[in-house]
Write a structure and sequence with these properties.
The protein is of the alpha/beta class. It contains twelve helices and 16 strands. The protein folds into three domains: 69 residues, no CATH class; 114 residues, Rossmann fold, CATH 3.40.50; 118 residues, Nucleotidyltransferase, domain 5 (2-Layer Sandwich).
Amino acid sequence: MSTDDNDSDSGHCKTPDSDGEVAEEIAIVAFERKMETAEEIVDGIGDRYETIEILEYHGDVFEEHWGEYDCFIGLMASGIAMRKTAHLLDDKWDDPAICVVDEELTWAIPITGGHHGANQVAQDLATMGAIPAMTTASEAAGKQGVESRAKAMDAHVVNGDSTVQTNLAVLDDELGPVARLDGPQAVLVGDDVTVLERNKDDGVVIGTGSVSGANKETFLEAWEIALEQTDYAFADVEFVATATRKEDEEGLLEAADELGLGVVAFDKETLLAHEGPTPSKSKELIGWPGVSESSAIAGGREQELVLEKISYEDEVTVAIGR
């Protein structure tokens, strides 16, 4: 995989306006007798989207509103949604995603567009108690597909057809870290190379490290204090960057999730190639450079620091890169 920002760096992990991977405009299609549940969904997750509207079900409701929304939440049996939309499906990158949910909010089932919004909506419905029944291969195997990596990096997939091959490589554990190429330069890629492009023209990256077990609140407070020392706010953050040895820190993941940010974990070699100016004991002890500065530099578009490392409560370190 390659991004438009480049230098042989590596990190785990259609169009910028539609994004291809993120659902922002939602329609809940519900029978009249299920309107109360539809309102519950709006109240429960509506603030996560740009718009969320309720449409009363009738036989042609999907056809009438096809293309107006990124994702339909069908408050109905999956068979109804499938029969009423099958003839409308044309291209997975252009078609709206569809996720069905039962009236008791027991199951949330993506039936089309799993990687293009339906899985995301199912995960949001899970916060209301529904069990997300994801059948896309990478998610079913507990792995991060390339579309999910793009979302984590606040990027979008440029050449959608390539994801068939790259996601097969994900399943076989054969897809390496995201390669970064800094231009201007021309790059010739094959059909099995997925190209990612950033969604924002500018923005910053939160680079962060921590002691094991730091909780969500500590991360959030540390990040907020760091941003207050810059001209940037959480709205300007593209993603949170860290080291692969910290990518499973529960507090970090919970904090990023609360802010709606993806987490990108860089490997040791990448961080060593982008070591920051502040000395770190971890390099002497375990051979890793300071995580916060090196990950902020590696992830930033310009590969420079806005804020050098600060420490919060001796638990979390933060640097800001761009």
